[in-house]
Structures are given as C-alpha cells and as structure tokens.
Amino acid sequence: MVTNRAARPLTGMTGPCHPLAVTALSSGVRVWQDGHRLCADLGVTVRLSPGAAQTVTFRWNGRTSLGERVPAGRYRVTAGWFGFSASAVLAVP
C-alpha cells in the first residue's frame, strides 16, 4: 500500500511490469521474480491526493521461477511500485 502523506498530490506510474521478487531468508537466494524483463507495459498514471492510499496485491504460488515447489521456510517478498519498494516476510509450511 502506498499512502500519500505529503501536502501535495503524488503522481506515479502503475502497470503489469513492476518488479516483484521472492528471496529465501536462509540462503539469500532469489527463488522467484517477475517484472525485470522486456514487457509491453503501457503504464497507467495514478494520482494520489494528500491522505489517499492505493493498494496493489499479487499472488505467488510457492514455486520458483522454473516452476519447482520451494521448500518450507521463511521468504522475503519484495515489490517495487509507484517509485517505491516494500517487503514483507512470509512462512511457507
């Protein structure tokens, strides 16, 4: 989620080609990524008024970029969007 905490509007681009990555915490190995490739990103301009928020979601199927199931463990999900990046840790049982 991006929240505009500034006193002026925030303008950025959104689209299907923004980077997403999943990294195993135990090894630091990036097991899956998307968005770091050639892409027909037409991009959509988003303008957030002061105090407004925009949320973007995605689903990861627990597989590597090669389609193999990842082992149980903790993984860091990193997303780049709107000129910002954020990350969260999730557990795969």
From TrEMBL:
It comes from the Bacteria. This is FlgD Ig-like domain-containing protein. It comes from Deinococcus multiflagellatus.
